[in-house]
Design brief:
heterodimer; A: 308 residues; B: 246 residues; alpha+beta; Alpha-Beta Plaits; 3-stranded mixed beta sheet; two-stranded antiparallel ribbon; 8 helices; 11 strands; elongated; binds iron/sulfur cluster
Amino acid sequence: MHPAASIIAFTVASGAGFGLIAALGLPAAWGAAPTGALFWWGFVVAFALAIGGLLASTLHLGHPERAVRAFSQWRTSWLSREGVLAVATLAVAGAYALSILGGLPVARILGPVAAVLSLVTVFATSMIYAQLRTVDRWHTPLTPVAFLGFALGSGVTIAAALHAATGEARLWPIAALVFTAIGWIARRRAWNAGDRRAPTSTPETATGLGHLGRVRLFEAPHTGPNYLLKEMGFVVARRHAEKLRILAAGVGGFVPMILDIVAWAGVAPALLLSLSAILLLAGLVVERWLFFAEARHAQMAFYDRSHT
Amino acid sequence: MTALPGKTDRTLGLVIDLDTCVGCHACVVSCKEWNTGGYGAPLADADAWGAEPVGAFLNRVHTFEVTPDSGAAMNVHFPKSCLHCADAPCVTVCPTGASYKRAEDGIVLVNETACIGCGLCAWACPYGAREQDPVEKVMKKCTLCVDRIYNDNIPEQDRIPACVRTCPAGARHFGDLSDPGSEVSRLVAERGGFDLMPEQGTSPVNKYLPPRAREPESIDLAALCDTDLAEPTGFFAWLDRALERL
Ligand code: SF4
Ligand code: SF4
Ligand code: SF4
């Protein structure tokens, strides 16, 4: 699948933004809603990431001026649900922020509600991909687990950095580490499963001619590129993918988790946790690029020239 | 609405005969021609006369090579357009309601004025049957020539899909697959019509008819081509020498 920059930016940034909203909202349940500098930094960064990501997603639309129509089909479409949930989450999170400013006790309810809605939004985002039977690497429960792990991992790492910068990091680095680890374990398992899995659809099932012999494309229907090949024909070379996986997991997983531990032990926590968050997001950009670039679409069976 | 109708009154679709298709691409051209001037926005090409032409088509013809365990390989020409699936995943993923399946005849269509061009439906279709228009930036797909089959302004014999009307080999058949007595249903029953990618769970309406078994060669064609390269004798030898000398 074609790794579009707008969709990579959308999923990474909005995931981190909603993860941060969850990290800011949940503590209100036990009366630990963010205040002071943590409040301002927290909500500004969270809204910037979440809204920036959503705006980036509209860049790949053919008709962004009609985007409001995408809120209409929430009964059937995960993409529509994602849009509705994102707006609802931002509205509740905004109300939560205002209730903290106003010192209203309803913050204790709005915070956890915003946190839950954030996670449901990220789940909906992941289902846009996980629902597609046409893409074997995406059509697995590991897709939502990885998306949720990474959203919380990046959001909580940012929250940990902000806690350290404005007060005390306490257990936040450990929470960041746990969620980051969940994301990477799910991703590693999905990579392995995807590597082992035989394609659901083959030239034989695509043409229905498998009973007659092995099938391969002899002549393509068109001599130039077309929308199908541009959008769905992209697959990164195997050996490049291997290197990029190591790079993504190293920069976005291994190093940030070490930094989280060192910061938790009390060494320059604000600095190390900020670095951890930046590296994690950079690693996730590579991870998300691979998410698309490694995915093979079923319709490519019609273009398969090899005998497999 | 992007909810699928539970049941459709009729089930219009195509039956494509892989035995008779000669791979001429006439259906591709007539489909392109009709749909450039017909329903919805034109079916555009970008850089049509340039070095990198790219355009949207609703119907394309692949050619496959099928190699049996023993014996000669066979080429099969393979036209492919939207299969108007009963469980169309392209419809349910659409966030805007632009994609829909008609309850009256099962045709899957795109309302081009509602489409935001997100492309998710093209990802959901396992057959590569949807292409975004490079100029209009809306999703395009086979309409089953909905603007011909119910069109009272054109002669009655033309009220069938353009690709079916054009096919010089008679490889494309159009009709109601929910009616067991229809010509298309009989063809499917007699010839063992099958679904493409049944594992994708789309329940396609369009069916394909398999190539018939090839007859074993009754005459040795290769032997007929064998020209005798031995030296000529008699009259031909004389003629040969005479011509040489000229
Ligand atoms: S062939 Fe593709 S575009 Fe047509 S109905 Fe089936 S899934 Fe949808
Ligand atoms: S491209 Fe258009 S028809 Fe396809 S899913 Fe998006 S809005 Fe619906
Ligand atoms: S039915 Fe009409 S739109 Fe569909 S492939 Fe044939 S000519 Fe094209």
